[in-house]
Amino acid sequence: MKRLRSFLDRIEPLFVPGGRFVRFHALFEMVDTLFYSPPDVARGSLHIRDALDLKRVMILVVFAVTPAAIVGMWNTGFQANTALLVMGLDGIEGWRGMILPLLGAGYDPQNFYDCFAHGLLYFLPIYAVTMAAGGLWEVVFAGVRNHEINEGFFVTSMLYTLVLPATTPLWQVAIGISFGVVIGKEVFGGTGKNFLNPALVGRAFLYFAYPAQISGDAVWTAVDGFSGATALGISATEGMTGLMASGLTWSQAFLGQMQGSIGETSTLACLLGAAFLIFTRIASWRIMVASFAGLIIPALLFTGDSANPMMSMPWHWHIVLGGFAFGAIFMTTDPVSAAQTNTGKWVFGLLIGFMTWLIRVINPAFPEGIMLAILFANIFAPVIDHFVIQANVRRRRNRHA
């Protein structure tokens, strides 16, 4: 590491103002801070001393989402291997079929390693394309603005990858993350200035631009010719009767053993991540609790409409299906696009939970609602904080009147 430090120090003059490669200063700074802590310190008279910097915060968030990623890769392989068993096929054709034997993995759905290795071969290409395409835009905008490359994209890239189906074409992956980074963040000034969650902006773009590859039944299992609807998709058309007939149990849904996007299916893994984020004080527990309450309360109050199949779904099923737990824990707590005041966080979370229930139950064309609910709440987060602050100001004026 000393040799690397000496090498970086030796070439640094080439990337500072006056150097030959000053245009690439952002790229050099990214590599330097990837291996070493930033040397910059606050020089103003007013600042906060804190051991955490942006890089460490992002690393902790990645640690928190890792259980969901691991379970997601296993479930992707499990669903694929189970489909192969049902269809009577020997294995996956193409490069994945050649690499799996090299990894010592087969197609046994009861073997954890076989399923994990199979799912990993779907996760890695999507994540690599996400990092390449999104990272390119980060470097371009940082170079043009002569700004540092912020580490926030590491979290955005991970979350974006985990909310995609395993069968998403890689060219669509690149287009989606490009839209999310450029339109959802960089046009507003970059990290810390975006009012929407960039990962969800990219996911929403793909959903509306390429619905056949994102919302169809055939996208959820990584086997050509196999069609498998999500639990929410079945519930939206057949209600709880159809869901029970599909053979899915609540415990399977809680653990994440069901059709869905790569990393969204396991509520248990998401709750482990939530505990870590709350313990490290990285994310707001108020938003998480309020989001769950916003979904549970209307699910308890409005039930029994036989004309609407989703009205019959109990609250404990709502919280384990789709990507609700993943969104409520990792997406709603984005420190930039969420509400900032304590009271505002409760309102923000309740709005997301209620909107999720509303979209799932009232809108028959779109059984999943957490993505649109979060983007909707992101838009109103500044307004929520504004009214909370104004209410506090009026309360203080009345107190001293």
Explain the overall architecture.
By secondary structure, this protein is mainly alpha-helical. The chain has three domains: 2-35, no CATH class; 54-214, no CATH class; 229-399, no CATH class. It is built from 17 helices and no strands. Helix 7 packs across helix 8 and helix 12 (267-279) packs parallel to helix 15. The longest helix has 34 residues, at 54-87. The model has no long low-confidence stretch (mean pLDDT 87).
Short description:
By secondary structure, the chain is mostly helical. It is built from 17 helices and no strands.
Summing up helix and strand content along with how strands pair, one would put the structural category as mainly alpha
Question: Strand-and-helix sequence, N→C?
Answer: HHHHHHHHHHHHHHHHH
- Shape field: globular
Alpha carbon gap, first and last residue: 64 Å
Helix content: 55-70%
Please state the CA-atom Rg, rounded to the nearest Å: 23 Å
Per DSSP, what share of the residues sits in E-state strands of 2 or more residues? under 5%
Please describe the biggest sheet, giving its number of strands, its sense, and whether it closes into a barrel.
none
- How many H/I helical runs? 17
- pLDDT < 50 runs, ≥5 residues: none
How many β-strands, per DSSP?
0
Total of domains: 3
Q: Quick check: average pLDDT?
A: 87
Structural descriptors:
single chain; 401 residues; mainly alpha; 63% helix; globular
